[in-house]
Structures are given as C-alpha cells and as structure tokens.
Amino acid sequence: MAELTYRNAVAHGIAQEMRRDPNLVMLGEDIAGAGGVFKTTVGLLDEFGPERVRDTPISEQAILGAAMGAAMTGIPVIAEIMFSDFIAVCFDLLANEIAKSRYMTAGQVSIPIVVRTANGGGSRFGAQHSQSVENWVMMIPGLKVVAPSTPLDVVGLMAASVRDPDPVVFLEHKSLMADKQDVPDGEIVDELGVARVVREGSDCTIAALALMVPRALEAAARLEDQGISAEVIDVRTLVPLDTQAILGSVTKTSRLFTVEENPRLCGWGAEIASIVSDEVFWDLDGPVVRITTPHIPLPAAEALEDMAIPSVDLVTETITKRMG
Amino acid sequence: MTTQIRDEGLYDYALREPRLPEPENRDNDRLDIPIDTRLEMYETQQLLRQFEKRAYDLFMQNLVKGTSHLSLGQEAIATGFARAQRDGDYTFATYRGHAHTLARGADPGAVLAELLGRENGILKGKGGSMHLTSVEHGMMGSYAIIGAQLTIANGAAWSAQMRGSGQVAVCFFGDGTTNIGAFHEALNMAAIWRLPVVFVCENNLWMEYTPIDLITAVPNPAADRAAAYGLESIIVDGNDADAVYETAARVIDRARRGDGPSLVEAHTYREQGHSRADPAKYRPPSEVEAWKARDPIPMYHERLLRLGVPEGDLSAIQQDVARRVDEATEFAKSGAHPGEEHLMTDVWADGGSAWRN
Predict the structure, then answer these.
(1) What is the pLDDT of residue B11?
(2) Chain B: nearest CA to A324, how far in angstroms?
(3) ∠ at Cα A111 (A108, A114), nearest 5°?
(4) Is it true that domain A196-323 has CATH number 3.20.20.10?
C-alpha cells in the first residue's frame, strides 16, 4: 500500500503496463526528459529508455498518426496530447482515421492505442487550456472514453485502457492532480464500462464525472444535513456507458441530477437524460435536471471561472430547490 | 473542345499558359532493368489502365455509386513503386487509390466489387472506393482526408524500425497535399527519427480544379520543400515506369539500410477530371493534348518494342488483362448487396458496435 497522488498514479499505471508488455511505447510533447508538463510521466524515461518513451515536436497530427500507424502494425502505443484543447488540431486523426478505420476496412485494421490528455478547468488557464472536451470524443463512433476521478481509478482504468484492443481517449483532470489516495501494491486492472456508486442514497441520484465527483460527494454530504439522501454515481467511462448502473439507481431514487463540467450543449448528461426519460420515465418523480457549466468559453479570472464551473454550492442549491 | 469563359471572367484556368511535359527520355531504354521486370510492369500498367476504364464504364451504367477518383494517366507511378517494394512492405494511399491497391496484388474482382458496394467487396462494401485496404498485401489503407496518411505511414515505419523488421513504408499523395500542415509535421518527424519511409508526391498539376502552381509558393510543390527537412530534392518522370522504378528502388533501399526517409516528386497528369463529377473543362486543351501524347502506356509499349519484345507478346498481355478485367467485372456484378448483418459489425475489436449495456 502506498499513498499516490493522481499525477503519480498516471506514471504508476503506465509503468505497470510497460513492464508487462515490452512492446508498449509512448510518445508526446515533453513527456520524456521533462516528465510531462503536469509531471504525470516522471521516471518513465529512466526506467524504459528513449526508444520506448519519446519526446516529439509540437506536431499533434504527427503524434496521433505515428501512434495509429504503429498500432496497426503491431506496436501498442500510449500517445499524449498535452492539453485536451489541442485535440482540435489533430481531430482528423482521432475522429476520421483512428475511430473509423476498423469499420471502414471490415475489421482488417486494429488500433490499440490510448490517447492521454489533460482535461478540464480550475487552473485559471483561460478558454484554450481549460475545456472539458469529453463530448468532442464521445460523439465519435469508434472511440472509447475514460475519465477517472481518483488515483486508484487512474491506475486501474489506465491498465484497462492499455489492454483494450480499441482506441481509448483517457482524460486526466488537471484539477485532480494533487489528490491523494492509498493504492494497493501489486497489479491493478479495472474494467471499462463500469460505473461506480460512490455514495448510497435513496432520494435522488447524482451522476458525475472526474472533478465533478468529489464536488457531488460534498454536495451529498450537505444535502444529508437537509434531510435529502443522495446517491452519487461516478460514471468513470462514457464509452462504453454503464447505463444499467444509472437506470438501476434512478429506478430506486426516482430522481436524477447530472453534474457536468462541459458547456451546456450536447454534454454527456444530455445523453443520459435521454436514455433515462426513454427507458424509466414512469419511475421518475420529477424531471431530470442537468447542472453544467454555462454555454460559454471558460473565462481566465479566478472569480469568473469559479462562477462558471459547477461548484458544491451550485450542486447543493440546485438539488435542494428542485427536490423541494 | 471549346473554352467556357465564366461571367466573372476572373479564374478561367483554361485560358492560362499550358504546363507541358518534359519530352520522353529515351536514354531510359538503357536502364539496367531486366526485361522480365519490364514485362511485369507493362502488365501491371495494363491492368491499372483497363481496370480504371472499366470502373468508369460501370459509373456510366450507374453501377458504381458515390464518388470515385481514377488514376488514368498516372499508372506508371503505382507500378514502378510497387515493383520495387518487397512483400511485407507497407503502402499508404489517398482516396485515389485503386491503382496502388491493385499494384500491390489485391484481387481486381474484390476491388471492383467494393466499388459496386457489394458483399464480396474487399471491404464488404463498408469502405468504398476511397478507403481500399488489403492488409494481407501490405496495402495499409487509402485515406480520404488529405495529409493524414503521411503521419500514419510514419507510424508504420516507426513500428518497423522498433521491430527491426526491415520493412519500408511507401506513402503516396497528390500535389495538393503539400500545402496542408500534416505534410510538414510528417516530414519533420520522419527526418528526426530517420524513419524507413518514402513519401511520393504524384504531381498531376491540378489540385482538384485549381492549378497547383497558382496556390503554391514554389514551382515543385514537394521537391522544393525537401531541403527544409534535410532531404534530397528528387524529381522523376512519373509517366515513365522505368524511371519511377529506378528511383523507387534507390530510395526504398536507402530506407531499408537505415539511412532515413526520402521525398520523391513524380510529374504526371490525370487524363480525366478530379472525380466522377468533374468533366475537367477548366484545363487548357493544348495541355491535355500534350500530356496525352506522353501517356505512359503507349510510351512503354514502344520502348518494349524497341527492346525487341514482339508485338504479339504485348498484345497477348493486353488480352490476358482484358480477360481478367472481364472476370473481375462478372465477379463484382455477381455479388449480393450487403445485408443488415454487416451494418452493426466491426466498430470494435469484439466485432460489434455496442456503446452501452
């Protein structure tokens, strides 16, 4: 058992998999010599050497293209896109090539890659280095999407992502990097497509992802003081989506709130709201309510960014009001 | 052919000075290429030519849907490179990829069936003309978004380098590709990692409907950029299969030896429009005529006659290819339209498409 930060857990999870599979390689900007701009890859160059841990130019298309070409010819790859906002400059590779090649070739091509990227706000980086882009990738058929909220999940879901034969986008949250947790010794392998009930409750369900999970948990604690028993689900992976966990919880509590860091339109919670209203509508005692960042670019100023991203106060107040 | 002047009168490219081909280099008759190799390349060029003509005929019969981009006039490039590659080497192509797929040995019937959207197509009808792939022949895909395939070819070359397999990746693209960012990202990465990859620009002078020289900062869109990546500037007559083969063998060998990537610019001309929808009326008629007079296949035919191959041998090859293309056509037409069982398969490695439980 060792206490790991979220950022250390990234390197821990990668190292576990690179020791297991001598073919596994990684590439990205500043990942080797510098250990990553978020220090998530510290120590990997020393242990695995420059052939397996490669610094690249600022060339996001070349990074993902190299990852794809290597993966389809027998070398599994972990590729880092430094900030998830930069997915926009290599979206062709991700959306058109990596995601679709298996289908377009009737299964001739296999692309076992993990695209790691630092996602989300709270760092006062402004509109181009703070976005929550999970919906950008969730909407593309052929991509799996993972967003862990704890160090233990980082390790286990990293292993599951690396071992998955399909392309996985792995979203590491910038504002969770310093979070700490005891992580057991030995190999840790989790499973994609499995959500987790992180707090049981009976009056309403709160579905949250990544940074919104600890906020939802704190809100649930406050709601308990007000006599509202909230169940909190960490969605963990958006594709595959564990709809059964959410539907099961909603069937029990009869209310659903989603807490999403993404801007309003087409957030993952909209898809869950659609599924819930379609499949368990008659179990609901009230409308599904989405708590999201407003539909704006994220501002840089501390005061403004804190207003924009759903806070514990906002989650608590919204649920209190809508449950009233 | 009449020249249409548009009302706005600004961009009638058909009125521009024609860009004429260099004359044939007859010295290439004496290149040290065995006659058997040359006969194989004659046969391949015949196959690519007759296949593309058949594909065009099948468009006109409305049996090929969607769009399609033919390589008529550009066959010598696919032929020369494929002949210089070894089994196991990789090929990456663009949406104009029928020729490259066939040149690596894929079955013409399965390729034609794919164009017809049939179940017996090489991709079961799921990819179509622009995504032809045959991994078993080293044909690692046809990519329809300009530039991506250069970065992906790097990855295959990187993989070969790490595995020490000796494989070389050859990546084709058009002149228009040289102006997109991925081209430059890929060349830089290939150079710094000394990847065993060969980039081949098929410069047919037209970026879709626009003259490439009008929209490019340098006269030779690929070769003039080679120096920026520490590479040799290489231009080859893309309408001479022997010249292409000689250059291909040299740069592929260089890559295989571990001496890094090359960038080759092959000058050629597409004898038809950009795609099925394009009648190509925007080109100066004298330009089209001059390049048709430099058609790679009659030129190669004449060379083989000069080298002593009897006309009867060449016509026998032509007829044999014609028979194969007829058989391919029958095979393609006989295929069923793919059934519903194919719609939801092969999104994931488990064969399915489930995104939720």
Answers:
(1) 60
(2) 32
(3) 170
(4) no
